[in-house]
Write a structure and sequence with these properties.
This protein is mostly helical. It contains seven helices and no strands.
């Protein structure tokens, strides 16, 4: 009886331990795959927008481009966190996501103010509008990838990054609006839309901060 109980206990303990390790590795691999896929999507989006910005000189597009590039860069701390399989590293990665959003807001805001003080023309409006559509599509795809995986893996950092990308998709539509108003003969609207995008990015920063901090309580 005693021997049987011992054998049963040992078998159960071994199975349970193996299951935990297996789940941890699976979560790490899925998290890394998600981060890499979102990075590829946003990286391609930023490169396409950079080419259009070089030709058009739109500050509204620059605001969106800088933000998308910063968003793609958040893959680095998130990837490290999943590779380490560390909850603490994941929380810190979430904070890095918030910092990246804030930095991109500052850059976009400064560029918009500079363009207001020193106006310059915006060219290739058709390409500019297309770049905004590219940003919308890229961010929508990245948001879906991150949010689905974040909920499945119970990762606040991934969920925050997904919400961030989803909001960015609508910010990208501001670039399309900029092309339209400039085409209508109101070029000053371009930096003004850049400032509006900056304000929206700051709002996203606050919402992302609350998401990440809200996951630091009991049960994380």
């Amino acid at each position: 009886m005693s021997h049987h109980a011992h054998a049963h206990h040992h078998g159960h303990g071994h199975g349970h331990s193996h299951g935990l390790v297996h789940d941890s590795i699976k979560r790490s691999r899925e998290g890394l795959r998600t981060v890499a896929l979102a990075l590829a999507v946003l990286g391609a989006t930023a490169l396409a927008q950079a080419a259009v910005f070089a030709a058009s000189g739109s500050v509204a597009l620059l605001a969106d481009l800088v933000h998308n590039a910063g968003d793609a860069a958040t893959a680095i701390p998130l990837g490290i966190a999943f590779a380490l399989r560390s909850a603490t590293a994941e929380r810190r990665a979430g904070l890095a996501v918030v910092a990246a959003i804030l930095i991109s807001a500052c850059v976009a805001g400064i560029e918009s103010v500079v363009r207001l003080l020193d106006p310059s023309g915006v060219d290739h409006l058709g390409a500019l509008a297309a770049a905004g559509v590219i940003g919308f599509a890229g961010n929508t795809a990245a948001a879906a990838i991150r949010t689905r995986a974040g909920r499945r893996l119970d990762s606040a950092a991934l969920v925050a990054d997904g919400d961030h990308a989803r909001a960015d998709a609508y910010v990208s539509l501001g670039v399309v609006a900029s092309a339209v108003v400039v085409a209508l003969g109101v070029p000053v609207a371009d930096p003004l839309i850049g400032l509006a995008i900056t304000a929206l990015i700051l709002r996203i920063t606050w919402a992302s901060w609350r998401t990440v901090r809200g996951h630091d309580g009991p049960g994380t």
